Amino acid sequence: MISYLDLLLKLTIWFLLTSDLSLPNIVIGFVICVLLPRRLTSPGKIKDWFRALIEVLIAIPQAYFEAIEIMLFPHKREGIKMEQVKPRRTPGLIFLDIFIITFTPKTIVLKYHEEGLYEVHRIKRGKKS
Fold it and tell me: What is the pTM of this model?
C-alpha cells in the first residue's frame, strides 16, 4: 500500500506543476500518483517529512521574491557549489530536496552524487568576477 506521505508528496508536486485544483485534475493527479512506480524503502521519519513540507511552503514565496529580484537587479555572477545532503534522507526526501532547490529561480541542482552531495549552480547579484 502506498504510504500517505508519499501520496501527499506526489500530489503536491503534481499540483505545483499543473497549477490546477479542478476536480478532473485532482482525479487525474491521484490516479497518476497511485500508478507511479515506487520502491520498497524504509519510510522516512514523520519529523523529517514535516520539515520537508515546511521547506516547500517557504520555497514558494521565496521563488516569487527571487524572480522579481532577478528582473529588477542584474545577476551577473554565478558559481557551482557542492552541498551536503541532510542525514537520514530517503529517496523521496532527496527528490524533494532537489525539487525545492530547483524550484527557486536562482539555483538548480546539476547533479546528485551517490556519496551524498548535490552539485548546485547559483546566480548572484553583482558584477562579473
Answer: 0.65
Locate cell 506543476: which residue? 17
Is the four-CA dihedral 69, 62, 10, 96 of positive or negative sign?
Answer: positive
Beta-bridge mates of residue 68:
none
93 contacts 46 by C-beta, under 8 angstroms:
no
Residues 6+ apart with CB under 8 A from 89: 44, 48, 97
pLDDT single digits (tens) 42-57: 555 677 777 878 888 8
* Alpha carbons 68 and 4: distance in angstroms, whole number: 35
Name the DSSP class of 86.
P
**What residue spans in the chain does CATH classification 3.30.1370 cover?**
42-129
**CATH architecture under which domain 42-129 falls:** 2-Layer Sandwich (3.30)
Query: Nine-digit cell at 88?
Result: 537520514
